[in-house]
């Protein structure tokens, strides 16, 4: 009997030591299409675009999942799973995201898959953690073929035909340009078209301190301190005895030394078509201008390899420190969490999961 009493006492003592101390952290799971959840997701996508240095801006397509955690001493943390779609606006393009066109399936769409933690405090949203990747993927290629069997897929950017097309198009643009000499910043996208045999490319450029008509050694040209970027689309078509080069470049307003993450007013963007030989290239004053060149014959030259078909979002936050460490005890998902039903504070226990994932705003890839 004494042994039984001793065992009971030891069991109670062990239970006291093993029981968790302090209040248990709980989270709620609101609807993925809840307006506040969407606000947090839009803030996260804006954060993503403000950190992109290459490729194209992304738009929100779907909210996959959401948890809302309390943050001590103030605010809440939205833990989000978000799908995005690539737009046709390059990251250098000052057009507001709301005015950017989503790249369609037939153009071989690119989808982003992101995880965010977004702090809401005093009515303001700020991202404290971000992780993304993106891919056109095999499924996307199949989708393209279903919609448009003859549409070209994305090509490797290190393909020799792509490298040549970019160099030929940039050379054609500089030949017709009486303003600054432009250098290649990145090749953004490429497609190989079987009939007629041609290569479509999109690439970003930047103005240098050299005059295009006077360049003897491009290696001696330096980018301007006040960066001025441009974005080009070109098609190089194979012809007997040469090739046709048609290129359109849009030059954006010069950026200050410390550019702001928010894009400029899209109403300031103006496109002016110019046929070769045409007048002199417009000065840097206008926010944007375009030049169309072609056809002309350009010799092929080798270029540097780029082993990808698109800019993967997984590189967007390289070298960017997470701000989460500054939140102290704000967010500790490792602490055995409880789950609260939306709108019922502190009600821990079984619940019916709300509708997630949320609505698809554009299309599924």
From TrEMBL:
Q: Where is the Cystatin fetuin-A-type domain?
A: 27-133, 146-257
Q: Name one GO cellular component term.
A: blood microparticle
Any one Gene Ontology BP term: negative regulation of bone mineralization
Q: What is its main location?
A: secreted
UniProt-listed SMART domains: CY
Q: Write out the GO MF terms.
A: cysteine-type endopeptidase inhibitor activity
Compartment(s): Secreted
Q: Which InterPro entries match?
A: Cystatin_dom, Cystatin_Fetuin_A, Cystatin_sf, Kininogen_Fetuin_HRG
List keywords of the entry alphabetically.
Disulfide bond, Glycoprotein, Mineral balance, Phosphoprotein, Repeat, Secreted, Signal
Origin superkingdom: Eukaryota
Signal peptide location in the record?
1-18
Name the CDD domains on file: CY
Function, as annotated, reads:
Promotes endocytosis, possesses opsonic properties and influences the mineral phase of bone. Shows affinity for calcium and barium ions.
Q: How does it assemble?
A: Alpha-2-HS glycoprotein derives from this precursor, when the connecting peptide is cleaved off. The two chains A and B are held together by a single disulfide bond.
PANTHER family, alphabetized: ALPHA-2-HS-GLYCOPROTEIN (PTHR13814:SF6), FETUIN (PTHR13814)
By what name is this protein known? Answer: Alpha-2-HS-glycoprotein
């Amino acid at each position: 009997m004494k042994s039984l009493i001793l065992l009971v006492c030891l069991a109670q003592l062990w239970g006291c030591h093993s029981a968790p101390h302090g209040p248990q952290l709980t989270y709620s799971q609101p609807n993925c299409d809840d307006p506040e959840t969407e606000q947090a997701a839009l803030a996260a996508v804006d954060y993503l675009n403000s950190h992109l240095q290459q490729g194209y801006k992304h738009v929100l397509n779907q909210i996959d999942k959401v948890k809302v955690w309390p943050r001590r001493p103030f605010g809440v943390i939205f833990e989000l799973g978000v799908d995005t779609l690539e737009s046709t606006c390059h990251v250098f393009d000052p057009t507001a995201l709301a005015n950017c066109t989503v790249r369609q399936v037939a153009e071989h769409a690119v989808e982003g898959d992101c995880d965010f933690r977004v702090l809401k405090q005093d009515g303001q949203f700020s991202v404290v953690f971000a992780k993304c990747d993106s891919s056109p993927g095999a499924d996307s290629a199949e989708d393209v073929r279903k919609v448009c069997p003859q549409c070209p897929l994305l090509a490797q950017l290190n393909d020799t035909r792509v490298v040549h097309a970019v160099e030929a198009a940039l050379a054609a643009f500089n030949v017709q340009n009486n303003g600054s000499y432009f250098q290649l910043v990145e090749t953004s996208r490429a497609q190989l078209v079987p009939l007629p045999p041609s290569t479509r490319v999109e690439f970003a450029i930047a103005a240098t301190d050299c005059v295009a008509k006077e360049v003897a050694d491009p290696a001696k040209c330096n980018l301007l301190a006040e960066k001025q970027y441009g974005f080009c689309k070109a098609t190089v078509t194979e012809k007997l005895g040469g090739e046709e080069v048609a290129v359109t470049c849009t030059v954006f307003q010069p950026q200050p030394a410390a550019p702001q993450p928010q894009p400029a007013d899209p109403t300031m963007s103006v496109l002016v078509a110019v046929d070769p030989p045409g007048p002199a290239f417009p000065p840097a004053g206008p926010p944007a201008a375009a030049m169309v060149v072609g056809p002309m014959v350009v010799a092929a030259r080798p270029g540097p390899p780029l082993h990808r078909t698109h800019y993967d979002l997984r590189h967007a936050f390289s070298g960017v420190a997470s701000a989460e460490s500054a939140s102290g005890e704000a967010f500790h998902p490792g602490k055995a969490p409880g789950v609260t039903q939306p709108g019922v504070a502190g009600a821990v226990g079984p619940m019916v999961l709300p509708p997630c994932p949320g609505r698809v705003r554009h299309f599924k890839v």
